[in-house]
Specification:
The complex is a heterodimer of chains A (about 600) and B (about 100). Chain A contains 25 helices and two strands. By secondary structure, chain A is mostly helical. Chain A has one domain. In chain A, a hairpin with a 2-residue loop joins strand 1 and strand 2. The radius of gyration of chain A is 33 Å and the shape is elongated. Chain B is an all-alpha fold. Chain B has a single domain, classed as Orthogonal Bundle (Helix Hairpins), CATH 1.10.287.3510. Chain B contains three helices and no strands. In chain B, helix 1 packs antiparallel against helix 2. The longest helix of chain B has 27 residues. Chain B is elongated and about 55 Å long. Classes of the chains: A mainly alpha (about 600), B mainly alpha (about 100). Chain B: One of its GO terms (molecular function) is NADH dehydrogenase (ubiquinone) activity.
């Protein structure tokens, strides 16, 4: 009897301890954030033990704790599935969260409600763990909704700001639309397979799994901000930077992709759903990369970058490589969280300036942040032998050598080069050149909380790809032989993106900004999608109701048709044809005179 | 013609003169209009009753109805003038816009 399940349960229980202590005096203590951070780091270290055991011996566990209820023939219980996916994801998520908590001790240290902030972050982490280790769909749904609610609470952290409230509401609404798909899938499984347990779902056969997989795809579209349900992710940057780093780059938004990866035994035999996933992911990655090119807020560029990488993960699922998508989730967490933390460091140092047109020259002033920003961007674009290379390059190679949709492949390659382009844009505007910010700021990045957290993720960004991909069990066999031009494709398009972006930036640096062209307007207004969806539909219904109820019935038929038209017509015609002067007495007198004269003169008849 | 008809006819002529000749108030013209209608009504009723023109008995009623309409119209015009100017002096009925 080894310590696998006990260590894992211990790690998960350690995470819940600060929440339990939140009703005691400890919660009002000034050291509560430190306590939370330490709890997370201990949970990480303890969860590494089962992970090492899994890597060494391939042992998987399912822990079924507590039988909740049995509804006629279906048994619902609390069960944790500790297999390949959850065992590798849990330490990665805990490591990244540990660094983010240390970072937010620096970032939010002047916030009076910092204890509540850490409690919310910890609650989010717990629900994410519940989601990842769930063995049945009900527990997964609990985690799913939990991360949605915590996302709402954390995005609207500064609730006095209208934009933050709107963004939080937007996140909840878009996630809800995805949840409809999830519930449809649960209902289908309940009706047809009589279970919500993953094991039973995978062994019962059915000829056609199209409907539940479509529901899962809709759920993933909502949660992972694929095209169609994507506007909430850039709007979610209204929350504090640690929230953006944790939720909207590493953990919550990958929940949708994780769901599809969990159901990969169902998806491997369904060609239709794979093609749908592929095309959806390809559209997402290209569209969001185009939108990222002209944004001016540094957090929004990184948010669109996250969206683009999520589209890439969907593409990977679409070419039937769920393990590669999972590897990309794990490696992406490192450098994306680090990119967000570096942008948080820049923002805080420049006294809350988020516009890259007002940054510049930070190369000499913030050396450590500059280093990590550059390394993070290089890892994101897939520089050989950094972290991103081990997942992203493998994805591009598999897509190139597989029998897949050529259009989807082409736009994925274009999006890869655009990734390099907007990364260059961030680095060029924020770091290089002469400073464009106000010189009255004291810039100091010497806080050990900041430095240590970014340093940990920096080491992770450089080495984690190597360590993870050489430690995991071999799953799907990567393509070993391919022509050299296919092998070099990812590197070539990335280099092309870098060079083009650098040239364009350097050339147009001193030029005056003309009237924006149509392509620029398309990109910077996010493809007109939020404008159309959020404004056109309510405006249409309001206009239709005004025109039909108020104007048509009331104004036209009841008011104008008979009464006002008659009076108007009479007035117009009388003013037209009357040329009298209103000398009534004269007219009357002349009439009387004429009568009298006619009576007198014409009296003689006969 | 018998005396009754001449009497009533004279009443009609008097009211007509009163309507055509007036000095300042529009109201006096409208009042004389009512007088004309009244005398016409009486003459019509006397003629019909004396000559037993039974089928024409509805005509005084019709005359009354139209007289009422026309009185209302005249009064509304008077009210409009009075709203604009405060009085109903006929010298106000000019084309001045104010």
């Amino acid at each position: 009897m080894n310590m696998f399940s006990s260590c894992m349960i211990t790690a998960l229980v350690i995470l819940t301890l600060p929440i339990i202590m939140s009703s005691t005096k400890l919660y009002k203590n000034k050291l509560y954030p430190y306590y939370v951070k330490t709890a997370t780091s201990y949970a990480f270290m303890i969860s590494m033990i089962p992970t090492m055991m899994f890597i060494y011996s391939g042992q998987e566990t399912i822990i079924s704790n507590w039988h909740w209820m049995t509804i006629q023939t279906m048994k619902l219980s609390m069960s944790f599935k500790l297999d390949y996916f959850s065992m590798i994801f849990v330490p990665v998520a805990l490591f990244v969260t540990w660094s983010i908590m240390e970072f937010s001790m620096w970032y939010m240290h002047s916030d009076p409600y910092i204890n509540r902030f850490f409690k919310y972050l910890l609650l989010f982490l717990i629900t994410m763990m519940v989601l990842v280790t769930a063995n049945n769909m009900f527990q997964l749904f609990i985690g799913w909704e939990g991360v949605g609610i915590m996302s709402f609470l954390l995005i609207g952290w500064w609730y006095g700001r209208t934009d933050a409230n709107t963004a939080a509401l937007q996140a909840v609404l878009y996630n809800r639309i995805g949840d409809v798909g999830f519930i449809m899938t649960m209902a289908w499984f309940l009706l047809n397979l009589n279970t919500w347990d993953l094991q039973q779902i995978f062994i019962t056969t059915n000829d056609n799994f199209n409907l539940p997989l479509l529901g899962l795809l809709l759920a993933a579209t909502g949660k992972s901000a694929q095209f169609g349900l994507h506007p909430w992710l850039p709007s979610a940057m209204e929350g504090p930077t640690p929230v953006s780093a944790l939720l909207h780059s590493s953990t919550m938004v990958v929940a949708g992709v994780f769901l599809l990866i969990r159901f990969h035994p169902l998806m491997e035999h369904n060609q239709t759903i794979q093609t749908l996933t592929l095309c959806l992911g390809a559209i997402t990655t290209l569209f969001t990369a185009i939108c990222a090119l002209t944004q001016n807020d540094i957090k929004k560029i990184v948010a669109f970058s996250t969206s683009s990488q999520l589209g890439l993960m969907m593409v990977t699922i679409g070419i039937n490589q769920p393990y590669l998508a999972f590897l990309h989730i794990c490696t992406h967490a490192f450098f994306k969280a680090m990119l967000f933390m570096c942008s948080g460091s820049v923002i805080h140092s420049l006294n809350d300036e988020q516009d890259i047109r007002k940054m510049g020259g930070l190369f000499k002033v913030l050396p450590f942040t500059t280093t990590s920003l550059i390394i993070g961007s290089l890892a994101l674009t897939g520089m050989p032998f950094l972290t991103g290379f081990y997942s992203k390059d493998l994805i591009i190679e598999s897509a190139n050598t597989s029998n897949t949709n050529a259009w989807a492949l082409l736009i994925t390659l274009v999006a890869t080069s655009l990734t390099a382009a907007y990364s260059t844009r961030i680095m060029f505007f924020a770091l290089l050149g002469q400073p464009r910010f106000s010189p009255m700021i004291l810039i100091n990045e010497n806080n050990p909380l900041l430095i240590n957290s970014i340093k940990r993720l920096l080491i992770g960004s450089v080495f984690a790809g190597y360590i993870i991909s050489h430690s995991i069990t071999p799953t799907t066999i990567p393509q070993m032989t391919m022509p050299h031009y296919l092998k070099m494709t990812a590197l070539a398009v990335t280099t092309l993106g870098f060079i083009l972006a650098l040239e364009l930036n350097l050339t147009t640096q001193g030029l005056k900004f003309n009237y924006p062209s149509n392509y620029f307007k398309f990109s910077s207004l996010l493809g007109y999608y939020p404008t159309i969806m959020h404004r056109l539909t309510p405006k249409t219904s309001l206009t239709i109701s005004q025109k039909s109820a108020s104007m048509l019935l009331d104004s036209i038929w009841l008011e104008n048709t008979l009464p006002k038209s008659i009076s108007y017509f009479q007035m117009k015609s009388s003013t037209l044809i009357s040329n009298q002067k209103g000398l009534i007495k004269l007219y009357f007198l002349s009439f009387m005179l004429t009568m009298i004269l006619s009576l007198l003169i014409l009296n003689y008849h006969g | 013609m018998s005396m009754v008809y001449i009497n009533i006819f004279l009443a009609f002529i008097l009211s007509l003169m009163g309507m055509l000749v007036y000095r300042s108030h529009l109201m006096s013209s409208l009042l004389c209009l009512e007088g004309m209608m009244l005398s016409l009504f009486v003459m019509m009723s006397v003629t019909i009753l004396n000559n037993h023109l039974t089928l024409a008995s509805m005509m005084p009623i019709v005359l009354l109805v139209f007289a009422a309409c026309e009185a209302a119209l005249g009064l509304s015009l008077l009210v409009m003038v009075s709203n604009t100017y405060g009085t109903d002096y006929v010298q106000n009925l000019n084309l001045l816009q104010c």
